[in-house]
Hints:
Elements: H1 3-28, H2 34-45, H3 50-69, H4 75-98, H5 104-128, H6 134-144, H7 151-172, H8 177-183, H9 186-210
Helix pairs in contact: 1-4, 1-5, 2-7, 3-6, 5-9, 6-7, 7-9
Amino acid sequence: MNRLVKRILMSVFGVALCGISVGMFKFAALGVDPFQSLMSGLDAVIPIRFGTLYVIVNAVLLIFALVFDRKKIGIATFINLFLLGYIVEFSQGVCEKLMPGAPLWLRIVILLIAIVILCLSSSLYFTADLGVSTYDAVALIWSQRQSKIKFAFCRVICDFVCVAAGVALLLISGQDIEQILGSVGIGTIITAFFMGPLISFFNKHISQKLLPDTGSN
């Protein structure tokens, strides 16, 4: 198969898997990924529509990526922007139809599966190198512009900054613990700890084998 075609397929498949995993996160209701926890905090303190806020935040991150490494912006970035939301809605809807009133143990299983799928999806479109989401670009650019901190740890640091900022903003907004745990729960913490290392694992054992001669992080 032509290398470019393979990269495009990896990007599209990676974004589709990402949307499926986020829908599973939302169905499990045990905490969203770190970037979405930050968005929840910003939404709680900034009095504009969430959709408008999401565009503004991603526009800022897009400018950062364009300034420091515009190669991170490509077809996958725009597939992510325009299609991800619809895939998330579809995935969450399927879960709700197939597993209505799911007990806690099943939601935990769904959450763990979602984390693995999210990391695999990120690895696929990172390695395809046809653009990544604006948030994913931050850790990738940071890890590649210096040699002391590997990607896995750059990602962990970025994720924890998002989680800490999200929690702080939710507290400032006056939300109670139950509301905060809906946005920043066990799923958020697990993702913050393990997403970077798991992406690196999938890079080495799956994605880079699909595209030989791809550099490692």
